[in-house]
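Here's what a typical entry looks like (Retrovirus-related Pol polyprotein from transposon TNT 1-94):
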Amino acid sequence: MAEEARKAFGIEKFDGTDFAYWRMQIEDYLYGRKLHLPLLGTKPESMKAEEWALLDRQVLGVIRLTLSRFVAHNVVKENTTTNLMKALSGMYEKPFANNKVHLMKKLFNLNMVENASVAQHLNEFNTIINQLSSVEIDFDDEIRVLIVLASLPNSWEAMRMIIRRRDADKTSGSGSALNLETRGRALDVMGLEDVRISLPNGFVWLLEKVRHIPDLRRNLISIGQLDDEGHAILFVGGTWKVTKGARVLARGNKTGTLYMTSCSRDTIAIAGASTDISLWHHRLGHMSEKEMK
């Protein structure tokens, strides 16, 4: 059991916050080493009383080793595993107003610095969310996304704009109006329509459910939609192309953050953002053979 006590130091010590997380750790540890019976509080019929008393005392010691000094002093009089766990639960599991306020301030003051690790930022965010959940404060998925977006630096503004457009699109059906913003000016999506593009080989490429925005003079179709319809989209070396089978349907070069065709009038452009929510912008009209090259 001395070895078990030494290994227990690998569990994050409980300092009075996030009781649910600490309890999960200690229970997993004890169950994994088949030391969990004292947690249940009932002696197995096949076990002698003195064996049970020794096991309970050993598990009690292992649990105490995972408590901070301050917390351990508060439960120093508890002499059985079940009484110790009940005492800790009564002191720390119930939600306290001060703890709630502290965690809420911690959440809304969380901001990712420029060029920091996104994974590390999300881990910190999820830790706080789990701590709030342990004191009975829960957020639905939509609110969590909004809080995360608000915590990102200015370089993520493009992502925020795309998310807003995507969420607005979910509320719009065919023939309805959808409000977007571009350069501070509101635009309306008046519905969905099909677009036909003449290809150099004489074929016509039909794009279905393209978003019609009269004031933008372009229409939108998602890369995900093209993928669902069996198209292959390749971005490499500052160029892009769309193929289906052996047929090249569209191609172009990267200009700034956009992937564009070489033509000056009728243009297909793809928003160059580090996200799978990228949008296609296509101006109505036919593409000539010259524009495809």
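The longest strand covers residues 204-213.

More examples are in the samples folder.
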